[in-house]
Specification:
heterodimer; A: 7-stranded mixed sheet; 4-stranded antiparallel sheet; 0% helix; globular; B: mainly beta; 6-stranded mixed sheet
C-alpha cells in the first residue's frame, strides 16, 4: 500500500530534550515536506526537500532541523523543544508537487 | 505572499443535502494549483480534489465538485448528496506554479453532516 508513515503518533516530552519524528514514504517520491497544524492557523510549512541532500526552509523553520540522506526518509529533529512547539505535525510527499501531496497520519507533540 | 481565506469556520447540514464551502485566495501569479483536503476525526489529511488554474473546466470527483472563478480568486467546494462520512475539517490550499513546493493552507472549515 502506497503510504507515508510517521512515528510516533503521540509524543509527550519535556523542554530541552532532543527528539526526532521519523517519516518514510514508499512511493519513490522526490518531494517531501513537514507541516505543523495549529488551531485557527491551518497548516504551515516547516521544511521541504526536493531530493536527497536538498532541503530548504519553509515558513516556520525556527527550532527545527531536517535531513534527507535517503530518498524515502525525511526525519524532523527538534534539538531543544520548547512549549511553543506543541502542535500536530504532518509529513507529506509528492511525485512532482503540483500533482498533490500524500500526508502521513500525523504526530501529536506535547512539550511540557 | 499568497494567502488563502476560508470565511466559514463551521457549517452544519442534514444528510443528503448539498453544501458549498467557500475559499478565496490572493496571488499575483497566473499559473498555480488549488486543492481541497479533508481531515476527518482520524486526523488523516486526504486529497479531495485539485484544480489547475490554466484549465477553465471545473474539476469534479464523484460527489465533489469545485466552482473555480479565476478573476474573482474564488475556489469553492460543493458536496452533493452529503453523507455522514463527509463530516470533517476541510482545508483549501494553494500552490504557486510547477516549481513551487509549498502548500499554503486556509484556516479550515469544520463541516458536520447530521443524520
Amino acid at each position: 500500500e502506497a503510504q507515508v508513515t510517521q512515528n510516533p503518533r503521540y509524543l509527550i516530552t519535556v523542554t530541552g530534550k532532543k527528539l526526532t519524528v521519523t517519516c518514510s514514504q514508499n512511493m519513490n517520491h522526490e518531494y517531501m515536506s513537514w507541516y505543523r497544524q495549529d488551531p485557527g492557523l491551518g497548516l504551515r510549512q516547516i521544511y521541504y526537500s526536493m531530493n536527497v541532500e536538498v532541503t530548504d526552509k519553509g515558513d516556520v523553520p525556527e527550532g527545527y532541523k531536517v535531513s534527507r540522506k535517503e530518498k524515502r526518509n525525511f526525519p524532523l529533529i527538534l534539538e531543544s523543544p520548547s512549549p511553543n512547539q506543541t502542535s500536530l505535525y504532518f509529513c507529506a510527499s509528492s511525485f512532482a508537487g503540483f500533482d498533490g501531496y500524500t500526508f502521513g497520519s500525523g504526530t501529536r507533540l506535547t512539550v511540557v | 505572499a499568497q494567502t488563502v481565506t476560508q470565511s466559514q469556520p463551521e457549517m452544519s447540514v442534514q444528510e443528503a443535502e448539498t453544501v458549498t464551502l467557500s475559499c478565496t485566495y490572493d496571488t499575483s501569479e497566473n499559473n498555480y494549483y488549488l486543492f481541497w483536503y479533508k481531515q476527518p476525526p482520524s486526523r488523516q489529511m486526504i486529497l479531495v480534489i485539485r484544480q489547475e488554474a490554466y484549465k477553465q473546466q471545473n474539476a469534479t470527483e464523484n460527489r465533489f465538485s469545485v466552482n473555480f472563478q479565476k478573476a474573482a480568486k474564488s475556489f469553492s467546494l460543493k458536496i452533493s448528496d452529503s453523507q455522514l462520512g463527509d463530516t470533517a475539517m476541510y482545508f483549501c490550499a494553494f500552490m504557486k506554479g510547477r516549481g513551487a513546493q509549498k502548500l499554503v493552507f486556509g484556516q479550515g472549515t469544520r463541516l458536520t453532516i447530521n443524520p
